[in-house]
Amino acid sequence: MLVRMSFSRHSRSPAVIFDLDGTLVDSEPHYYEAGRRVLEQYGMPGFSWEEHTRFIGIGTRETLEALRREYGIEAPVDELLAAKNRAYLELARAHTEAFPEMRRFVDLLHGAGVPLAVASGSSRAAIEAVLACTGLAGVLTTLVSAEEVEHGKPEPDVFLEAARRLGAAPGGCVVVEDAPPGAEAARRAGMGCVAVPYVPGTADDPAFASAGLLFPGGQKEFDARRAYEWVTGGN
């Protein structure tokens, strides 16, 4: 089922800002495995996928800060962050795939000259590595990591910085997101949102209520042409 809601466009050629993990690329299994390895390394085995899904859409630093508190890990968060980034990059460089229909969406927008950016809770090194290995680096060149702003999602900082770098007004931007914190960040930034839940069970989350276009079934339901027509007004 496709849900449509209104979005007041302030530009005939809106800029589009993509979240990366779980939206453009299927990298969440890598983040889970990297986190599991790090927690095991620090004496906390048994971290489950279900536990990981609580943090989908939250930046890596914020995730590790929460896990450090929950598990009582004494190591500094910067040490944990460095360890997880090393593990993640090893996994991501070995194999990461872009979602096929999302890649088609990027190609449609790029072909139409729509300004594009990536704004992610991942480190800049992780963003660059994933875009390189999926072949998207040549198209998506404006990048913002949560490391570069004061607050991660659900605060709007990464999206506002992406808009600034694109030279676009926030009201003329559309965010593509897979997680409630990202949809909430888009709302706080005053931007439109195309929501493609990575975890379909979150489709009813209140944060997605503000999305202008929602594909409740996630990537299996996402339609690049429909999203493109919605974003551009059919132009």
TrEMBL record:
It comes from the Bacteria. The keyword Coiled coil does not apply. Gene3D superfamilies: HAD superfamily/HAD-like (3.40.50.1000), Putative phosphatase, domain 2 (1.10.150.240). Keywords: Hydrolase. GO terms for molecular function: hydrolase activity. Pfam families: HAD_2 (PF13419). This is HAD family hydrolase. It comes from Streptomyces nondiastaticus.
